[in-house]
Design brief:
alpha+beta; 4-stranded mixed β-sheet; 4 strands
């Protein structure tokens, strides 16, 4: 880690003292194994889309007519952001809701995040439709 400039604080970026404390916390005190156990409670899969391995979570509701719901994270982000809402969405009855409020949830990891491959080159974007053919 670089040495701090005299009295720089946050002026030139992250405060060096703060960063050292943060790194020590993640290295020495954060319970990584507990996080792994928590995330491994979810059904996780990979599939190939246009040559990229894509990771996603898929939790089906116990309700037979649950509506499918796709939830995506932004950049930067992770499927982990949605861990707390998967239960209430897929099993609303257990969380004080009604059976007809149930969803089958799919949460992909966008390319380059989580366990999804990153693109080696930009995606090919199809040409825009002429205005007359847009809906």
């Amino acid at each position: 880690m670089p040495d701090a400039l005299n009295g720089d604080g946050w002026f030139y970026g992250t405060d060096t003292g703060y960063l050292k404390q943060l790194v020590a916390y993640w290295r020495d005190r954060f319970d990584w194994r507990a996080q792994e156990r928590a995330l491994n409670r979810f059904e996780q899969f990979t599939t190939n889309i246009d040559g990229l391995t894509m990771h996603f979570l898929h939790r089906r509701s116990k309700q037979p007519n649950a509506f499918p719901l796709l939830i995506t994270h932004g950049w930067p982000g992770s499927f982990v952001e949605f861990a707390k809402i998967i239960g209430p969405l897929t099993d609303p009855v257990a969380h004080g809701g009604r059976p007809d409020e149930a969803f089958d949830v799919v949460i992909p990891s966008i390319p380059g995040f989580g366990f999804s491959d990153k693109r080696a080159r930009p995606a090919t974007i199809p040409p825009a439709l002429p205005r007359s053919k847009r809906s």
